[in-house]
Amino acid sequence: MEKVLYKPKNGSYNLLMAFPACEEFALASLGYLWLFKTADELEGINAQRAATDSIPNLKNIDSIAFSMSFDFDFTGVFEILEKLNIPFYSRDRGEDYPLIFAGGPVITTNPRPYEAFFDFMLLGDGEDSFLEVLEILKNNTRQEALEKLKEIEGVYFAGRKTKKATVSLDNIIYTPILSDRSYFKDTFIIEVSRGCMNRCAFCTASYTNLPFRYYEYEKIIEAIDLGLKYTDKIALLGAQISAHPKFNEIMEYLEKKMDDNRNIELGISSLRTDSVSPQIVRTLVKGGQKHSTIAIEAASERLRKFINKNLKEEQILSAVQIARENGLKGLKIYSMIGIPNENEEDIEEFLRLAKLLKDNNKGFSIEFSFSSFVPKPQTPMQWAKREDNKSLEAKQKFLEKGLAKIGVKSKFSSIKWDYWQTVLSRGDSNLAPFLVEVYRCGGNSGAYKKALKALDIDVEKTIEGFCLEEALPWDIIENYPSKSLLKNEYQRLLKRI
Ligand code: SF4
Cβ(203) to ligand 1 under 6 A? Predict the structure, then answer.
């Protein structure tokens, strides 16, 4: 069942809002749902949702907007286009086909691998630019619209230098459609802040969303009250929500509601290690949370310094202690292997830290969760080399064994998939046929290998990294911070190692 928290309007311009995964995830994606609401509330637009497993029977689609959050989403884009009998490449689509465009974090970070498939793309925050795009689309012929769109901040046409859009956070964003079919069943998600001021050197959530912005306390409280009219499940979202200057007050407000016998199930994506406080943990526990996550990125302070994660070991120990003493049952500790310049001692540090945490927190569940380092565009690490899979696999084996011996659970992301993620995220427009071939071969990890062989293309550059002087595929985006600032930061960090 769905509860729609706004008044939809209708119109003759048929827009399909497509999510390149199944509907369960579409209904859990705050950004996608909010932009759908924007379109659905606009006079003159007939907005419909689509996902890979639910495509409405819509005659005469005028345009299709895709939201891409993950590097592997392109297979979902192709799946939907194929089901609609629409050619993948924009060059193969004539006037009779819908205009097809995309936005989202993947596109904002590096649109180059996807530019052959979309008529245009949206870079940066979508709230304002999407609305402007819709106004143009519904009021103009296709040709006129394409001309006028060039004037909109954040609208990217293949090969054209573009400044990404950045909005000030005035209108708070929350789940506009509650559904029991959502991955986060009936959960009212509220965006508390956007971006992160910490600027860890690998982090796109920080670097592609600068400056760090947050909503006014009053707006967050109003949104909580609105959500509680419809559901007991509230989730607060943001890369660094605890950096909100009134985060403790927001927690106090929720705690008071719970003390007044209001049943609230509270969800928070992860806690910032250096700001875990008794107030935050208590409220989470009252809100039914038993476990949470902190990110330390590396066990060795040397490597943390190098990636600008300026976290001291005392802060990690203290965060775990506060979590335990205030009622959580366990913590997941997120980290990476394969950070450039990582050596044997850095890896051994994980075992030392795990033992220390285990000994200090008897009966408290600690799990280490690892991924392998993926250098991302638009961060100071965009030039770095990715470590080869074999040596990463050896590190994984060593840690799995060592942590099991200490009695600490561990989980690893797939090193193969992290490798392909690197290829996709640092690729350029030459990747287009490769992406199509991967889809044709089934989209699994074997498909990537097969596609590489079939096309005889070389992706080594995306793995080996770039030198500081050369042009990068995504230089085409005018970003803040500029490339020269990223370069300075990278060089400053290299001196720390
Ligand atoms: S604290 Fe987390 S969100 Fe912030 S920059 Fe570091 S990794 Fe990114």
Answer: yes
pLDDT tops 90 at residue 54: yes
Helices (H), 27-73: 30-40
Percent of the chain with pLDDT over 90: 95
User: Average pLDDT, stretch 469-483?
Assistant: 94
Report phi then psi at 409, rounded to 5.
-75, 150
Output the CA 239–ligand 1 centroid distance in Å.
Answer: 7
* Beta-strand pair 13-19/45-51: parallel
What gap in Å lies between CA 192 and CA 215, rounded to an integer?
6
CA of 247 to the centre of ligand 1 (A): 17
Calculate how far, in angstroms, residue 336's C-alpha sits from the geometric centre of ligand 1.
13
How is residue 389 written in tokens? Answer: 């899979």
pLDDT for position 59? 85
Report d(CA 433, CA 439) in Å as an integer. 10
Residue 381 Cα, ligand 1 centroid: separation in angstroms? Answer: 14
Q: Is 198 in the pocket of ligand 1 (CB under 6 A)?
A: yes
pLDDT at position 479 is 87
DSSP 3-state assignment of 412?
strand
Distance, in Å, from the CA atom of 13 to the CA atom of 46, rounded to the nearest integer, reads: 6
What average pLDDT does this structure show over 429-449? 96
Q: Where are the domains of the chain?
A: 2-163
Q: What pLDDT is stored for residue 36 in this prediction? A: 98
State how far the Cα of 126 lies from the Cα of 57, in Å rounded to an integer. 27
What spacing in Å lies between the alpha carbon of 294 and ligand 1's midpoint? 11
* Cα-based torsion angle of the residue sequence 423, 425, 429, 431 in order, rounded to the nearest 10 degrees: 30
Tell me the C-alpha distance between 435 and 114, whole Å: 9
Write out the two tokens for 59.
Answer: 């005659």
Average pLDDT, whole number, for the chain?
Answer: 96
Q: Could you tell me the fold of the domain covering 2-163?
A: Rossmann fold (3.40.50)
Going by pLDDT thresholds of 50, 70 and 90, the confidence category of residue 497 is confident
Query: Which residue is closest in CA terms to ligand 1's atom 1?
Result: 198
E strand or H helix at 398, and its extent?
A: helix 389-406
Looking at ligand 1, which residue's alpha carbon is closest to its atom 3? 239
| DSSP secondary structure string for all residues of 450-495 | HHHHHHT---HHHHH---TTS--GGGGEE-SS-HHHHHHHHHHHHT
Confidence of residue 243 (pLDDT cuts 50, 70, 90): confident
